[in-house]
Design goal:
- The structure holds 2 protein chains of 2 kinds.
- Chain A has 12 helices and 8 strands.
- In chain A, strands 3-4-5-6-7-8 form a 6-stranded mixed β-sheet. In chain A, strands 1-2 form a two-stranded antiparallel sheet.
- In chain A, β3 and β4 form a beta hairpin.
- In chain A, α5 runs parallel beside α7.
- Chain B has 2 domains: 48 residues; 257 residues, Alpha-Beta Complex (2-enoyl-CoA Hydratase, Chain A, domain 1).
- In chain B, 50% of the residues lie in helices and 16% in strands.
- Chain B has 14 helices and 8 strands.
- In chain B, β5, α9 and β6 form a beta-alpha-beta unit.
- In chain B, α6 packs parallel to α8.
- The chains are: A alpha/beta, B alpha/beta.
- Chains A and B meet through α5, α6, α7, α8 and α9 of A and α7, α8, α9, α10 and α11 of B.
């Protein structure tokens, strides 16, 4: 159970240390192509002020936007690096090293305990920048650690997903992260705690078809691509044009697969409200304890 | 007429010669028994040599062999009183997923299978073994039924994967798969899954998160098809052979990685050469696993199943 001792040791690395972007930088919105002042964009949580397009965000940003100040990501259990000694046009070991250099994260997930508007929560966030947010053993271990920490701290589990699916370079080991992460959701649910999944752009494949669809509450970010099969594969299979807005958060909401589509600016407050509404039992127990 | 794979050409030629000799000898009464015996021995040897060192890509072809026994063949041969049960109670019945009640060696069980079909008509009917959300929801319903009546679940997996379609996505393909995995993991009864042909990604694990996962010698089990992997990572689908090798999708590899529990040997030249023998071997393997699982109480059974999956992937090939 060495993951337990790891929990108390926060990561030394500061998360937002490299965000010293020059103030005069302009960013073009990929949706409306308008130019946005970098500082304005950061303030708007990477949502275009012109067209409300929600740009992709990294795991560190997710934690910063969601948790109250003073949180720290935990050290996650290590998974074997390159278990299959996989090599395509490049070695997986090299791809991993490059992704680590680029993102300064160990793998495609960060986990931090903290509070959301004063309410306890464990937040896990996937990082699409790290090999497309793909799920291998490290992501599976990360989610399991997050689930166990949530149970240990009697806190809800909130997961931000962003993933192209399973990490092919880990072969069937990545496939087995599907049942493993399903078990993670069970651990939290069995402890009477809520699992809230926030699906962000993009969430597809084996991640969608496992823990990401098993939240007590399913939230999507506006415009986020969420699905099982890739659009190209579907087009090739059915030889039909895909409907407008297909596999977007709003489409899934309409089809009864998501509870809510919540703009980024309202997400933190929404999460806090949902946790407050769901955790009546905990609050009542605490009240009874206080009067006893 | 037997369907031969590319790498089986030398065997095909030998067997063709044997057939020819037999045909010639019958009307003429010429004794060519010796020659036939010699050629047969040669063909067997060739077959043994070829199948002893199949590459991952060759195994992929064997796993997809059109004459390979299908889930329905296993059901027919191993399950008595098979009574198919249909539908997800919400939308439709999915013919890609077979399911129902029956008896395995006298014991009442719930059986599941992904069915590819054996000819054009049945392939279309079963959607080539690619299930839609209804299929996974039917599976979940039947696993829960098994739990209610303390019946073991036997699942025969042979699918290239879940169906990638517009309607499938609209009806929650991902959610249906996730819930089916969950149903396997949560079942208070033994769940034995056998990868009999292709174990294609999420569509396979949906019916294979069991206490014991068996895999046929020449079956494959992978997170993505070699073709799909090659077109993404190599940007060239023609590299499927290299991708098959890299993905470690053979029964031996999966056993070595402890992702499956046991490998069931196939008759010489693959299950398609002697389907009855292959099916009987699977039956014996299931029969060997079942008593140990039935001896466990539901709580211990579930805990052990969970522990097994939690241990997976902790070590690589080393």
């Amino acid at each position: 159970m060495n993951w337990l001792t790891e929990f108390v040791r926060p990561k030394i690395r500061t998360l937002l240390g490299r965000r010293d972007v020059p103030d005069n930088l302009w960013v073009q919105c990929p949706a409306c192509e308008q130019m946005i002042f970098q500082r304005e964009l950061e303030k708007a949580l990477k949502v275009c002020p012109h067209c409300a397009h929600h740009m992709r965000a990294g795991a560190a940003e997710r934690l910063a936007w969601t948790l109250d100040e003073g949180y720290a990501p935990i050290e996650l259990p290590k998974a074997p690096a390159d278990p299959l000694r996989f090599r395509d046009t490049k070695r997986y070991a090299d791809r991993l090293r490059e992704a680590r250099e680029k993102t300064r994260h160990d793998d495609a997930i960060l986990v931090a305990p903290g509070t959301i508007e004063g309410q306890k929560a464990v937040v896990a966030a996937m990082d699409f920048e790290f090999m497309g947010g793909s799920m291998g053993a490290a992501v599976g271990e990360g989610l399991l650690a997050a689930a166990r920490l949530a149970v240990l701290q009697d806190a809800p589990l909130v997961v931000f997903t962003a993933s192209g699916g399973a990490r092919m370079q880990e072969g069937a080991i990545s496939l087995m992260q599907m049942p493993r992460t399903v078990i993670a959701t069970r651990l939290v649910k069995e402890a009477g705690l809520p699992v809230i999944i926030v699906l962000t752009d993009p969430t597809t494949g084996g991640v969608t078809a496992s823990f990401a669809m098993l939240g007590d509450i399913q939230i999507g970010e506006p415009g986020a691509l969420i699905g099982f099969a890739g659009a190209r594969v579907i087009e090739q299979t059915v030889r039909e044009k895909l409907p407008e807005g297909f596999q977007r958060a709003e489409y899934l909401h309409e089809h009864g697969i998501l509870d809510l589509v919540v703009p980024r600016a309202e997400l933190k407050a929404t999460l806090a409200r949902l946790i407050g509404l769901l955790r009546v039992r905990q609050i009542e127990t605490a009240a009874v304890d206080a009067t006893a | 007429m037997r369907h031969f794979l590319d790498f089986e050409k030398p065997i095909a030629e030998l067997e063709g010669k044997i057939d020819e000799l037999r045909r010639m000898s019958e009307p003429n009464g010429i004794n060519i028994a010796e020659e036939v015996a010699r050629l047969t021995e040669k063909a067997d040897k060739q077959l043994r040599l070829t199948y002893a060192k199949l590459s991952a890509w060759q195994k992929t072809q064997v796993a997809r062999h059109p004459e390979r026994p299908k889930a329905s063949d296993y059901l027919r041969a191993l399950i008595a009183d098979y009574t198919p049960l249909a539908g997800d109670r919400a939308f439709a019945d999915d013919a890609a997923v077979l399911g129902g009640l029956g008896r395995f060696e006298g014991r009442s069980v719930v059986v599941l299978g992904t069915e590819k079909g054996a000819d054009t008509e049945s392939r279309v009917k079963h959607n080539f073994g690619m299930a839609r959300p209804e299929g996974y929801r039917k599976a979940r319903r039947l696993i829960e039924l098994a739990g209610r009546f303390a019946l073991p679940v036997l699942s025969f997996v042979d699918t290239s994967g879940a169906f990638p379609g517009i309607e499938a996505e609209a009806r929650g393909q991902a959610e249906a798969i996730a819930r089916s995995i969950e149903a396997c993991l949560e079942a208070p009864v033994p769940v034995i899954a056998v990868i009999v042909g292709e174990g294609g990604s999420g569509g396979a694990i949906a019916l294979a998160a069991g206490d014991r996962v068996l895999m046929l010698e020449h079956a494959i089990y992978s997170v993505i098809s070699p073709e799909g992997c090659a077109s993404i990572l190599w940007r060239d689908a023609a590299q499927a052979g290299a991708a098959a090798e890299a993905l470690r999708l053979t029964a031996d590899d999966l056993k070595r990685l402890r992702l499956v529990d046991a490998v069931v040997g196939e008759p010489l030249g693959g299950a398609h050469r002697a389907p009855e023998t292959a099916i009987a071997a699977v039956g014996r393997a299931i029969a060997a696993e079942l008593p140990g699982l039935l001896a466990l109480d539901p709580v211990a059974l579930k805990a052990r199943r969970r522990e097994k999956f939690l241990e997976m992937g902790r070590e690589g090939l080393g």
